[in-house]
Design brief:
8-stranded antiparallel β-sheet
């Protein structure tokens, strides 16, 4: 509970300070995303020209030859800053989302979250702000999804 409150406070402060933030959620609350059979919705907050934000998404799996990344389709929704992530994501994969915006240069917030046989593990969300997830972060998330 304390972690959730701290994260909420941090994101609120960041949004008011002109930061670029990336949150993910279920498409169930968004009829447009739901009609697209979206796996999840990305919500981008940017003080400076949020309409110029771009979201990319992929899922990552362990294969016999190592880590394999597959791009997912991302469609901008009618509401500014809302994006539908579309595609079939297999159990045991890790989803990585990245947001870019030309006003923020090389700053690219990212999110990692896992899937299991029931779908997306919402409690597994990890945010990365100024530093992208390392190979070790991705492998740890993949190994956790195997359990």
């Amino acid at each position: 509970m304390k972690r959730t409150l701290a994260l909420t406070a941090l994101l609120t402060i960041a949004a008011w300070a002109g930061a670029l933030t990336l949150q993910v959620g279920s498409p169930d609350a968004n009829p447009e995303a739901k009609s697209l059979n979206a796996a999840l919705v990305a919500d981008v907050t940017a003080c400076h020209e949020p309409a110029k934000s771009t979201v990319t998404a992929s899922y990552i799996q362990m294969t016999q030859s190592g880590v394999h990344r597959t791009d997912l389709q991302v469609k901008q929704l009618k509401a500014t800053g809302k994006f539908a992530v579309i595609g079939t994501i297999p159990p045991g994969a890790v989803i990585e989302l990245t947001v870019t915006n030309p006003q923020f240069g090389n700053y690219q917030p990212r999110v990692l979250l896992r899937t299991d046989t029931r779908g997306i593990e919402w409690a597994s969300i990890k945010h990365f702000y100024s530093t992208p997830p390392s190979d070790a972060d991705v492998k740890a998330a993949l190994e956790a999804s195997i359990d």
